[in-house]
Amino acid sequence: MSLSLCMTSWRRRRPKARYVIWLRIDQKSSLKSIYHAGYEPIIVEPVRDKDALITNVESVNRIVEQRGEEILCVMTTTSCFAPRSPDNIEAISAICAAHDVPHLVNNAYGLQSEETVRKIAAAHECGRVDAVVQSLDKNFQVPVGGALIAGFKQSHIQSIAQAYPGRASSVPSRDLVLTLLYQGQSVFLESFSKQRQMFLKMRRKLTSFSENIGECVYDVPENEISLAMTLSTIPPTKQTLFGSVLFARGITGARVVTSTQNKTTIEGCEFVNFGSHTSEQHGGYLNIACSIGMTENELEELFTRLTSSYAKFVRQLANSEQRAVSSGRRVTSNPSFDLEND
Ligand SMILES: *Cc1c(COP(=O)(O)O)cnc(C)c1O
């Protein structure tokens, strides 16, 4: 809704605009925010750079050059699931400045990462950043429901605030103020450096786990929140089941992403392989993320459960194949996996 509010507030300034250039991120809210504001997305898929999916800067540049005033703004995203990289906001802000097109940054959970904040400041220095929108719950450990719209100019924020219809609920602001007062400056700032420490630790642990089981962690150097590990040792048809086993064991933040040719329709737009941020096919992977507030104990517990769940899963998989072979039948259904929380 806050992304929408920014876009609607720019309507009068850009009367010929019909489109928003949207750098594909497989998160429904950000796409819906464009339609909600009354615009249509021009979808730009990321390009592969080794393991990472990065911004197709040339494509954005070409579209901005061709369409000019028909473009309301370019929407970039700085926080996302690996192997998608945060968008190259420095390059996009330079293009936006050169063609006088607004640049809206979806910084959903990026505020917790110092590196992301540094990049936003750099993007502002080398070009144009009109508004940066972030969720309160994802960055400040408050309940879901609020967002913070930030900008580099008071007047930019004022004109967005003035576009808001109604008086709004004071609850998200109240929760944020209470939380900040409770934490104080040092605890508040500590939680950000702790996130970075924990992320680096998570990456080391996942790398070593992946080496033990013959998998590997995607190398996405710019993504300092989310990690992806290949799942080549689990057949593609069994990967979703593995995901549900993890969920049943209380690993609720991990997500298995499988590759499909299926199309998903959102707001009338068709996406191949929705969830992967690209229509390109891949071998399936597991996502885990380290967000603000994660503790050492939680990290240890995650890897204890992940290690044992994986071992049990591949063992049961091997057993069921063994049984199928010895009884001379083909495996057509899923073996009965024990989904109990042990
Ligand atoms: C969470 C998220 C949103 C939506 O944020 P809400 O605070 O839930 O409205 C939008 N885009 C991305 C990339 C997100 O991760």
UniProtKB/TrEMBL annotation:
N6-(pyridoxal phosphate)lysine modified-residue sites: K138
Annotated binding of substrate, by residue: R167
Name of this chain's protein: O-phosphoseryl-tRNA(Sec) selenium transferase
UniProt: tRNA binding residues: R249, R315
Organism: Caenorhabditis japonica
Entry's EC annotation: 2.9.1.2
Enzyme class of the recorded protein, top EC level: transferase
InterPro entries: PyrdxlP-dep_Trfase (IPR015424), PyrdxlP-dep_Trfase_major (IPR015421), Sec-tRNA_Se_transferase (IPR019872), SepSecS/SepCysS (IPR008829)
Purpose: Converts O-phosphoseryl-tRNA(Sec) to selenocysteinyl-tRNA(Sec) required for selenoprotein biosynthesis.
